[in-house]
UniProtKB/TrEMBL annotation:
GO CC annotations, alphabetized: mitochondrial outer membrane
Keyword Signal: no
Gene3D superfamilies: 3.40.50.1100
The protein's name: cysteine synthase
Organism phylogeny: Eukaryota, Fungi, Dikarya, Basidiomycota, Agaricomycotina
Naturally occurring in which organism (per UniProt): Postia placenta MAD-698-R-SB12
């Protein structure tokens, strides 16, 4: 009996058994050859990559091909997470700092400034190239109205960047009448738009319906939710990826509260067990708020404050009122540490000597709080404590990094403070 394989006809073409067998052998041989050569090629590529990898150790900031950043805003964020070797080795715990001083503006606030402006443009509150002006009060990281006792180099930086700086006596931000940045924003361009003002209920900007007229925009980093979101959507997820989700605690100081609230809320949403901890300088009321539910500082109660708002050489963190951004942090804060000026100064000098890290005052505060937390928890088994390295020491030459200034202020410069803290 003849099977269908004996003869195959395709129209007028007829193939006998031998021809079919040869064709099948040909196909199988071709397939085998192609699979083998592909495997060889893949294996070759793998070995080549391994060879290259052996030659070049991976670096924290990797340059990849076809990766051109578009403009200065592309440089904001995606900062490295650096292991603080001296503290980690001494404690047996990974102390990791998010190197925010590498942002183009030199601080963690770059992210917030960008997000506030982006959001305002998306909402139609700000229009580029209309001569509009952004107003903000600051100690120098974000904007243009600043107390007259902040480090001089911060003023110089802002001026060099084209900002107009108005220096004022330090005033309590509890006193809303003294919110000069808001007042200036309200009166900017007022001649053109007074009639429009009542139409818009948003209190922090002067409304101008036209997208071509200049307007004053009060960035309001303390109350503006874009601040929180910059960290919830940016810094928090970056930390989660960089640690592969291994975070035992996140420690941060608070000025507006945006950093601790945004990152803290994000990390908590990923892992309920992450501890969120506040580092608070002298003169701030936040420590008492977290520990005792009330917001006043010991010195304030005794009436011995030297400065109206926050009595410390540490700039950028510490506050005596509850901002909207800080309110978002309170429910997730499990602990707080009060950090003295002497401890912060000591930490900054210790880090230069041991790690070659030249950091600003709030970063130093954060790291003291990391050490205190590890000690309090008796952690020694490689847990990961993440914090923010907010800005560099070069923003602080005239005060925090000025030994004469510190001596006059009665603040000791003593590395033993940190050495004692680290000792078992
Ligand atoms: C140097 C520095 N560190 C830390 C902070 C605190 O960040 P946040 O306002 O998100 O609480 C600020 C805020 O201005 C700052 O300028």
């Amino acid at each position: 009996m003849r099977s269908w394989l004996d003869v195959v006809s395709l129209g007028w073409l007829r193939f006998d058994r031998t021809t079919i067998r040869h064709v099948l052998y040909g196909i199988i041989a071709g397939l085998t050859l192609s699979i083998t050569s592909t495997s060889f090629a893949l294996e070759y590529q793998k070995r080549k990559k391994e060879h290259i990898a052996r030659q070049y150790k991976p670096r924290p900031i990797e340059l990849r091909s076809d990766e051109i950043i578009k403009g200065v805003t592309g440089l904001i964020g995606n900062t490295p997470l650096v292991r603080i070797n001296s503290l980690s080795d001494a404690l047996g715990v990974e102390i990791l700092g998010k190197a925010e001083f590498l942002n183009p503006g030199g601080s963690v606030k770059d992210r917030v400034a960008l997000k506030i402006i982006d959001d305002a443009e998306k909402q139609g509150l700000l229009h580029p190239h209309t001569g509009s002006r952004i107003f903000e009060g600051t100690v120098g990281s974000t904007a243009i109205i600043m107390p007259d006792d902040v480090a001089e180099e911060k003023v110089k930086t802002l001026l060099a960047l084209g900002a107009q700086v108005e220096r004022v006596r330090p005033a309590s931000i509890v006193d809303k009448k003294q919110n000069l940045a808001k007042q200036r924003a309200m009166s900017f361009g007022v001649e053109d738009s007074l009639s429009d003002h009542a139409a818009n209920p948003r209190s922090h900007l002067l409304p101008t319906p036209s997208s071509t007229k200049p307007r004053g925009f009060f960035a309001d980093q303390f109350e503006n939710r874009s601040n929180f979101e910059a960290h919830f959507e940016g810094t928090g997820p970056e930390i989660w990826r960089q640690t592969n989700g291994r975070v035992s605690a996140f420690v941060s100081g608070a000025g507006t509260g945006g950093t601790v609230a945004g990152i803290g809320q994000f990390l908590k949403s990923m892992d309920e067990d992450v501890r969120i901890v506040l580092a608070d300088p002298e003169g701030s009321g936040l420590y008492n708020k977290v520990k005792h539910g009330v917001m006043f500082d010991r010195r304030e109660a005794e009436g011995t404050k030297r400065r109206h708002q926050v009595d410390t050489v540490v700039e950028g963190i510490g506050i005596n009122r509850l901002t909207k951004n800080m309110e978002l942090a309170l429910p997730i804060l499990s602990d707080a540490f009060r950090i003295t000026d002497a401890e912060a100064v000591s930490m900054s000098r210790y880090l230069v000597e041991h790690d070659g890290l030249f950091l600003g005052s709030s970063s130093a505060c954060n790291l003291v709080a990391c050490v205190k937390l590890v000690k309090k928890m008796a952690w020694r088994d490689g847990q990961s404590v993440v914090t923010i390295l907010c800005d560099s020491g070069n923003r602080h030459y005239s005060k925090f990094w000025n030994d004469d200034y510190l001596q006059r202020a009665g603040t000791p410069i003593d590395m033993h403070i940190i050495e004692d803290l680290l000792s078992p």
